[in-house]
Amino acid sequence: MSIVVNVEEAGYIKGRPVLRDINLELGEGEVLLIAGPTGSGKSTFLLLLTGVLTNLLYGYVKGTVKLFDINPLDPLEFSLVPKYVGIVLQSHELQIAMQTPIDEVLFVLENLKYPKPMERARLYLLRYGLLSKAGEDVENLSGGEKKRLCLASSTVHEPKLLILDEPTANLDPWGVAEVVKYVREMKEEGKTIIITEHKPDYFLNLADRVAVIEDKTLKTGKEYFEKYLSRELRFLHTSTSEKTSVEAESMSFKYCKECPLIFKKTSFSLKRGEVVAIVGPNGSGKTTLGKIISGLLKPLEGRLLLMGREPYRLKSRELLRKVIYVPQEPAYFFVKTSIEGEVKLASQVSGLEYSKVVEKLDPWIRARLRDSPYTLSYGQKKWLSQTLVSIYGSRVVVLDEPTAGLDINLVYRLFKWMLELKKEGRTVIVLTHDVRVVKDIADRVLVVCGKQVSELSISDAVEYLEAPVLEVIK
Q1: How many CB atoms lie within 10 A of CB 325?
Q2: What is the pLDDT of residue 166?
Q3: Collapsed DSSP state (helix, strand, coil) of residue 3
Q4: pTM of the predicted model as reported, rounded to 2 decimal places
């Protein structure tokens, strides 16, 4: 067996285990697909497996781990892990360290002292469709291109094990299809692959083994996947308000004088009390549109009105009462060093009494008020940011990829929360690639493409989002 794990318990603080009774044997060339609730310990399992938990994070492990020929828990052998393992993190923004794609891939090879690193780096950029952008600033890459860059830098040294942590998070359908294609190629090459994923159906056809991390333990077997694939989420698509909350009139926008136009004389309107999904390829301008609506960016020409006012002209507190933007990377939403500080700020803006707000918080948030929001798991950061949105009470809520990193149960809660906002007459704008948002909660769908914002029917939008992925996984 290439990987053998027999762990009684593991965690960050002794006496407070995050994982228990983890027993796994994985053969060389096998693909293991892992699902599980948000915060269940999937990422901790990966840290345990690679030795990062004990050697870098000062956690503890009772038990043994064998990773090919090495013991990653041993401080001396831990230094060999990068040679054997390639990791693609859930957030590519946190993984990429260098300014250009070629430098990112070279960084790996030079650290491992590979001969002819430039030749090999260019070969792998070619494989992942990035050679033409080798010298470009990574900030100019789309989300899908950044994910491919992470794949290139994680596989360029031919690791025996590839770990993919939520590899489809925040990707458009074409980006998801590309990731699935590359995983299939690596499986055919005989690589051992471990994937954690909240939408496991993308990879079920490629998986040799499946497991769920739940109740602090690893449970293997396909029967555990049923709850993640079959739960019904659908809500009614209805909107009765005729009052306009957001209106764009011949709006154009670009980031700088020399930059290309992102929007060109586009017009649309949104009503109060409706859930609107905004879809489109990575790099098409969805996030930019969300920031314009939120008053964070100013149109170049034309105008965008938020309840009759131009949002960028409003002072910060007045703006927050009207609109709030929750970014794709939830860590960017927080401005305080503690969860308590975040809740107090939101209470002050909304005029609510702090003690009464705390009483209504989820128990897990109340228990961690003194913690930094940055110590939460990705999905927990998402949920905290959405809780804060409720406290702020903004009339228009812009959510950038809100389902990313959430398990099926939290997606269900998220949709129920959106429905509550809708009943309060708030407009909920969801920038998304997730077909579940379109199928199950959206009243309307707008697509951003070709510098325009256009409306799609629900059925056309579902086909638009599903077709690229279905073509690859069928």
Answers
A1: 25
A2: 87
A3: strand
A4: 0.71
Q: What are phi and psi of 174, to 5 degrees?
A: -70, -35
Beta strands in 340-421 (DSSP E): 396-400
Q: How many residues does the chain have?
A: 474
Give the Cα separation of 363 and 328 in Å (integer): 25
CA distances from 414 to 79, 107, 222, 384 (A): 41, 40, 26, 11
Which residue ranges form the domains of the chain, and what is each CATH number? 3-230 (3.40.50.300), 244-473 (3.40.50.300)
pLDDT of residue 199: 81
| Contacts (Cβ under 8 Å, ≥6 apart) of 203 | 31, 33, 180, 183, 195, 197
Q: What is the CA radius of gyration of the chain?
A: 23
> From start to end of 36-160, where are the E strands?
60-67, 85-88
Per-residue burial over 68-100, b if 16 or more Cβ lie within 10 Å, else e, is bebebbeeeebebbeebbbbbbbbbbebbeeeb
Strand intervals (E) in 168-322: 192-196, 209-214, 217-220, 244-253, 263-271, 275-279, 301-306
**Per-residue tokens: 269:** 């309107």
Average pLDDT for consecutive 10-residue bins of the chain (474 residues)? 91 91 93 86 91 93 94 94 90 86 95 91 93 91 85 93 88 84 91 90 88 87 66 55 88 92 96 95 90 96 95 92 91 94 95 94 95 88 90 95 82 90 94 92 94 91 82 65
Question: Is the Cβ–Cβ distance between 410 and 362 less than 8 Å?
Answer: no
- Amino acid type, 380: Q
Encoded tokens for 210:
């499946």
